[in-house]
Amino acid sequence: MEAKDLKAQMEYRYMGNTGLKVSIVGFGNMIIQHQGNAQKTTNSIVARCLEYGINYFDTAEFYDEGNAESYLGQAFKELKVPRESVVVSTKLMFGTGSIFNVKTPPPTVVGLSRKHVIEGALRSLRKLQMEYVDIIFGSRFDQYSPLEEICRAFSWLVEKGYALYWGVSEWPIDATVEAIKLCHELNLRAPVVEQAQYSMLSRERFEKEYKPLFDKHGFGATIWSPLASGILTGRYNDGNIPNDSRFNDNPGFKHFVMSQFMNPNNKDKNVKILNDLGALAKELGYTQTQLALAWAMASKDSSSLILGFSKLSYIDENLKAIELYKKWSKEIEQRCEAILGNQPIPSMDYVIFRPNPQRREAAVFGKRPQ
């Protein structure tokens, strides 16, 4: 299918209860590395994403040790992309170093102190060559900074127009709810979006712990690692790491992923799941990657799936998942659930609180979220 045909199929969802619309698939440039032709690669990927109708682009201050924001901003400039036509987010917490390579950064350039939030945001804007970002995230919770200080700093960015919205990424639910409450009490701009890990192999936190954020507080959700860092692509179905896997170049990242999905306690179980998913995908006429992505799209609590394309061919393959998502049915859902066997049981049903019609009607085929 041509890009123009898939662009016609592109779905745009509200970011929770905001008026902001984002494409169901977004581009995140975490895995673009500064070695080689990083800028040329970014330019070509951004251009192809725009052809497909992707309007959401995600980056962070620490991606590629602080270089990724510059690649993305320069790509928009060279491609002459109108600022109002794209939604751009960045994240603060880890400074400009790599979280997978153990280093000791200066204490003032990490965390979510007022100093780092404001200085980090302004630095990100300079690299992006933008006057504002649409969304700025606190990327992980900083337990050492006072929560009021964190909320006031992000609210200040919104009030000053440096960001239009702010959100959190992988914060404990109690901290997020307390931040919402605190912002309302202090008349501050409250967070409105969660950036969470979510995939067929990682569901508990998104579907259970974060459920009140989506149902009660109307949060949007941008999804990272919907392919479980590549585990769901079919390349790891034998339980081994291919020679050309990016894990081989980054031992820290390899440990982070494999300890989650291929540790001694779950490897045999997950290998069986992967092979069964591969067989189902083949039966449906799609790749395992496309099945995994369509499954994640079928959760209406997901606003946008962040995909880390490193090659143009990956865009072509991955976005064909939209075609399968458009055909999603109760039967496909049930067959996936029979293979996975890992659907969390929510502790409480908040459906009566859903203020957004998109959410009240979100129980796709009576499943995620219920």
Please, could you describe this protein's structure?
The structure is a single chain. The relative contact order is 0.13. Residues 359-367 have low confidence and may be disordered. The protein is 41% helix and 13% strand. It has helices at 3-9, 38-51, 68-78, 114-128, 147-159, 173-185, 204-209, 211-215, 251-261, 267-284, 288-297, 312-319, 321-326, 330-340, 357-360; strands at residues 12-14, 21-23, 25-28, 56-58, 87-92, 133-139, 163-169, 193-197, 220-224, 304-307. The chain has an 8-stranded parallel β-barrel with strand order 3-4-5-6-7-8-9-10. A two-stranded antiparallel ribbon has the order 1-2. It has 370 residues and is of the alpha/beta class. One of its GO terms (molecular function) is oxidoreductase activity. It comes from Stylonychia lemnae (Ciliate).
- What's the number of structural domains? 1
- C-alpha geometry: globular
Low-confidence spans: 359-367
Order of helices and strands: HEEEHEHEHEHEHEHHEHHHEHHHH
How many strands in all?
10
Structural class: alpha/beta
Helix content percent band:
40-55%
**What is the CATH topology?**
TIM Barrel
Task: Specify the CATH class.
Answer: Alpha Beta
Kindly estimate the percentage of residues that lie in beta strands according to DSSP. 5-15%
| Count of discrete alpha- or pi-helical segments spanning 4 or more residues | 15
Radius of gyration: 20 Å
Largest sheet: 8 strands, parallel, barrel
* CATH superfamily caption: NADP-dependent oxidoreductase domain
Mean of all residue-level pLDDT scores: 89
Q: What's the arrangement of strands in the largest beta sheet?
A: 3-4-5-6-7-8-9-10
Write the CATH architecture name. Answer: Alpha-Beta Barrel
The separation of the N and C termini measures 33 Å
Pfam families: Aldo_ket_red
Family: Belongs to the shaker potassium channel beta subunit family.
GO molecular function, one term: oxidoreductase activity
InterPro entries: K_chnl_volt-dep_bsu_KCNAB-rel, NAD(P)_OxRdtase_dom_sf, NADP_OxRdtase_dom
